[in-house]
Amino acid sequence: MSARALETGSINLGQGFPDADGPDVVKQAAIDAIAAGHNQYPPGIGVPELRHAVRDHQRRFYGLEFDADAEVLVTTGATEAIAGALLALCGPGDEVVTFEPYYDSYAACIAMSGAQRRTVLLRPPDYAFDPDELRRAITPRTKVVLLNSPHNPTGKVFARAELELVAALAQEHDLLVVTDEVYEHLVFEGEHIPIATLPGMRDRTVTISSGGKTFSFTGWKVGWACAMPDLVTAVKTAKQFLSYVSGGPFQEAIAVGLRLPDAYFSSLAAGLRAKRDRLCRGLDEAGFTVFRPQGTYFVTTDITALGEDDGMAFCRALPERCGVVAIPSVVFYDDVSAGRSLVRWACCKRADVLDEACARLKDLR
Ligand SMILES: Cc1ncc(COP(=O)(O)O)c(C=O)c1O
Q1: CA of 347 to the centre of ligand 1 (A)
Q2: Spatial separation of the C-alpha atoms in residues 189 and 170, rounded to whole Å
Q3: Cα 145 from Cα 135, distance rounded (Å)
Q4: pLDDT tens digits, residue range 89-104?
C-alpha cells in the first residue's frame, strides 16, 4: 500500500510511521555515538547504557524490577524480539493463542517456529473478547499466549480485568506470555498495564517493546525483551542466529530517549491524542462508522455506512478514487468475514496531512 501511495501520489494513511522526526536530543545522541567511533559490533545482549536505561524505565513507569545484565536483551526492533521469543519458546506440536485481528508478523513468526496459532476474536466497537472463547482456545498443546496491548490494528488498550483473566489462565495452564507493548506510551484513554505487573506473572512473561513508536524513529529498529534469566537466555540464543547484534549507535541514542523527563512521554501521547481526534472527526464527517481507539497510531472504521462492504476492494480503489491510501483490516484476520468491511487509517501524520486526507475522503459521498 505504501508503494501504491508513491505510485499514485496519494496521502499515505496506510503504514504506521510518523511524518516528523522525534526529539533532536535523541537524534544528536546517535550522531555523537557514530562520531565517537562506536561503530563496531556491540555486545550481543546490547550496550550497557541501553540495558540500564530499559531497566530504569521499567522501574520508573511500572515498578517492575529487572537485572540489566541477565534479564534485559536488546533486539533489532520489537519484531526481532517477537521472532526470537516464538522461535525459542515454541515448536512443532505447540500452539500459540493470540487475539485477532493481529499484527501481521505474529502469524509469520508462529509459522516459522512450527507451532500452530489459535485466535480469539476482538469485536468492535470496543474490541472486547468473549472469555469463554479464550478458555476454549487453550488446549493441552498451548505453550504461549501472545498478547499485544495497546493493540495494533484496533487501538484497544486491554483493561485490567481482561489482563487478569489472561494471567489466571496462564497460571492455571502453566503457559508463558509474550507481550508486545510497543505502543506503551501512546495511550489516550485508560492506562497501559504491563501484564508482567500482575501477581504471579513476572516470571512467566516476556515483555517486549522498542524505541520506534516512543521516539518517532521507526527506522532505527531498536527493541528489547525483559524476562527472567532463563527466558532471556532462550530468546538470546535465537537472536544470535537472526541478527547476532543490533545497531550500536542507535542503541546509545534510544538510551538517552528512555531517560527523557516525564513531560516528553505525556506530551507525545497528548499530541497523538489530538491527531486521533482530528482524524476520527474527519472520518466521521466523511460518513464512516468510526471505532475510536484508546491508543496506538491507528483508527479503524467500518465502510458499510458508505454502501460498501469489501474493505480490500475499497482500499485498492481508494488511491484512484480520491488520492488516499488505507489498509484493509481483513489482512489482520483469520476470520475474513469478521474483518471484511473494516479499514485501518494511521493518525500519526501532520495535522495538515490529516486535514487534506479527510477533505479528499468527503468527496467519496
Ligand atoms: C504491534 C506491533 N508490534 C511490533 C511492531 C514493530 O516494532 P519494531 O519496529 O520495533 O520492530 C509494530 C510496528 O508497526 C507493531 O505495530
Answers
A1: 16
A2: 27
A3: 12
A4: 999 999 999 999 999 9
User: Ligand 1 center to residue 210 CA distance, Å?
Assistant: 8
In the three-class reduction of DSSP (H, G, I as helix; E, B as strand; rest coil), residue 62 is classed as: helix
Task: Please tell me if the CB atom of residue 101 comes closer than 6 angstroms to any atom of ligand 1.
Answer: no
CA of 184 to the centre of ligand 1 (A): 11
Query: pLDDT tens digits, residue range 154-167?
Result: 999 999 999 999 99
pLDDT at 365 over 90: no
Cis omega (within 30 of 0) for bond into 125: yes
Query: CA 352 to CA 347: how far, in whole Å?
Result: 12
Beta carbons of 332 and 108 less than 8 angstroms apart: no
Pairing of the two strands 342-346 and 222-226: unpaired
Please indicate, yes or no, whether the overall pTM of this predicted structure exceeds 0.85.
yes
Q: Of ligand 1's atoms, which has the minimum distance to the CA of residue 152?
A: 1
For residues 15 and 297, what is the distance between their CA atoms, to the nearest angstrom? 10
The number of beta carbons lying within 10 Å of the beta carbon of residue 288 is 23
| H or E segment and range at residue 121 | strand 116-121
Q: What is the pLDDT of residue 96?
A: 98
| Ordered alpha helix ranges (H), 215-298 | 229-240, 248-258, 262-285
Q: What phi-psi label fits residue 155: left (phi over 0), alpha (psi between -120 and 50 degrees) or beta? A: left
Alpha helices in the chain (DSSP H): 2-8, 24-35, 48-62, 77-89, 104-113, 131-137, 160-172, 211-214, 229-240, 248-258, 262-285, 311-322, 336-339, 351-362
